[in-house]
Amino acid sequence: MSSMTREETQALIQEVLEVYPEKAKKDRAKHLTVNDHEVEQSKKCITSNRKSAPGVMTIRGCAYAGSKGVVWGPIKDMIHISHGPVGCGQYSRAGRRNYYVGTTGINTYGTMNFTSDFQEKDIVFGGDKKLEKLIDEIETLFPLNKGISVQSECPIGLIGDDIEAVSKKKGAEYEKPIVPVRCEGFRGVSQSLGHHIANDAVRDWTLGARDDDDTWEATDYDVAILGDYNIGGDAWASRILLEEMGLRVVAQWSGDGTISEMELTPKVKLNLLHCYRSMNYISRHMEEKYGIPWMEYNFFGPTKMAESLRKIAAFFDESIQEKCEAVIAKYKPEMDAVIEKYRPRLEGKKVMLYIGGLRPRHVIGAYEDLGMEVVGTGYEFAHNDDYDRTIKEMGDATLIYDDVTGFEFEEFVKRVKPDLIGSGIKEKYIFQKMGIPFRQMHSWDYSGPYHGYDGFAIFARDMDMTLNNPCWNKLKAPWLASDDDEAPVAAAGE
Amino acid sequence: MPSVMIRKGEDDELLFYIAKKDQEDPIEKVETDTDDAWGGVVTLTDGSEWYIDPISPRPSFPTTLRFKRA
Ligand code: SF4
After folding, report:
1. Backbone angles phi, psi at A350, to 5 degrees
2. How far is C-alpha A125 from the geometric centre of its chain's CA atoms?
3. Residues A134, A137, A141, A145, CA torsion sign
4. Three-state DSSP class for A439?
5. pLDDT tens, A359-412?
6. Inter-chain touch B25–A288, beta carbons under 8 Å
7. In this structure, are strands B3-8 and B63-66 parallel, antiparallel, or unpaired?
8. What is the DSSP string of A151-210?
């Protein structure tokens, strides 16, 4: 289980870079680094949020994915129009598993796909008329919707449609929020800019809706959960803990969230930010405009959870702090039992991660609670502030990769030989075919929740189930296997 | 002249957030930092320097201001 030394890791990076042409090599070198706790600011050792090099396999998405798929999509009582050709929305439909309660098609619309299905004539003559017609149709067919967002796909920006004008006009006509979002896929280098654009649209079109309305009764214990998309029920597993602590969760952004919750958020006392990458913008805005403090927290694994719960409680009075301790104590036996059961089966196993913008650092604690070690991590679309936070969480001399290419990731895995990889659907089958246990860490591989105490039990079970699955020993055809192939085939990639 | 949001961090230190670049760094030194004025050359912990004409009265943070490269 010995980890690699700093020199070895450095040498590995150099070796992997060898295949690139001179210019690409120079460029990619800036995105790969060996973690060093001495470094205070990540920009000294890693470059991020840059355009991917042409010709390499990147795993990133587009700004439309960041806005429609991540930030706006889960708001369940609004209808989100994928404005443009049909494919962008249809191929991403319901893939993120943001759970919600409601009757789909009646008062909630999360897993449905609404699109203006652009054809050639819409590109030539413009699609504003079609958008108007679409909004009229929506109002006839789904009258219980609480609002509409127009999520622009690439062509909208290219042909210069005025979706703002249409939205304003129709919004006034139906007296509902209709929000144009300029999240055309070509903007920015990854889905990250889509998050930013989506946050700005929330700020400009909905957030202030109830500013002059004090009919809603606030309490001293109101909080909002930001940046939790309720993947497999994550936000629910988090919410119950906050409520047990005596806090009142006013809004969930945006998993299982509603537009009315969003409009009430400016009245809360504290914003709790789980995914920093996708919602720090709106948190900063609310801090400046409404004076609401925000804090990042981490509900993966009992150690980080206890830390976070205490940090949250510290914002409030003693009654909350007492209840917080009671909550931690209440779940402790349960968590100890989980760890007692799974730790012996997972102890010392090495994990490599490559996920989006938060989990590459947030899940480290949960793995450590199970005695596992994260030996490499990286983000698709993080910025330097994310890497600043990652340096502290990761072990010294471990591998960090930004916007890793398909080739680099495979080579790293062949050499580092992790026992488990956590990444996305595009990586899953490559590594499974290489004989390496794999968990899909974007949508929890059709499982979840992983947040909260309930989530940790499921997380531990899933990791065990994947890693110790007997199938990994059966990857070689029996007539090809020799006697000394009995050992796990985790290194079969070579 | 990027607009910069200045807010207080966890230990009450001032953080300098350049929205356009998504970059946040703690402020190390402010040239004029008295009860009734704030501004001048602002030095960040990464060594970069920014300038704003001193504002009086001292603004309350968080707030968004426009800075020039010093
Ligand atoms: S890049 Fe453009 S065309 Fe492709 S999925 Fe995104 S919005 Fe659609």
Report:
1. -100, 140
2. 37
3. positive
4. strand
5. 999 999 999 999 999 999 999 999 988 999 999 999 888 999 999 999 999 999
6. no
7. antiparallel
8. EE-HHHHHHT--HHHHHHHHHHHHTS-EEEE---TTSSSSHHHHHHHHHHHHHHHTGGGG
Strand arrangement of the beta sheet that strand A248-254 belongs to: A248-254, A222-228, A270-273, A294-296
Name which of B5, B25, B45 is nearest A288 (Cβ-Cβ): B5
Residues in contact with A22: Cβ distance below 8 Å, sequence separation at least 6, in sequence order: none
> Which residue among A288, A383, A385 sits closest to B63, beta carbon to beta carbon?
A288
pTM of the model: 0.92
Nearest 5 degrees, angle CA A485-CA A488-CA A491?
90
Q: Touching check for A284 and chain B: CB below 8 Å? A: yes
Residue A96 is a catalytic residue: yes
CA distance A366 to A302: 7
The structure tokens 């800019």 sit at: A193
Contact status, residue A32 vs residue A17, Cβ threshold 8 Å = yes
- CB A425: neighbour CB atoms within 10 A? 12
**Structure token digits, residue A238:** 């988090």
What six digits make up the tokens of A162? Answer: 């005025």
Q: Is A62 a catalytic site residue?
A: yes
Contact status, residue A490 vs residue A352, Cβ threshold 8 Å: no
On whether the CB atoms of residues A299 and A230 are closer than 8 A, the answer is no
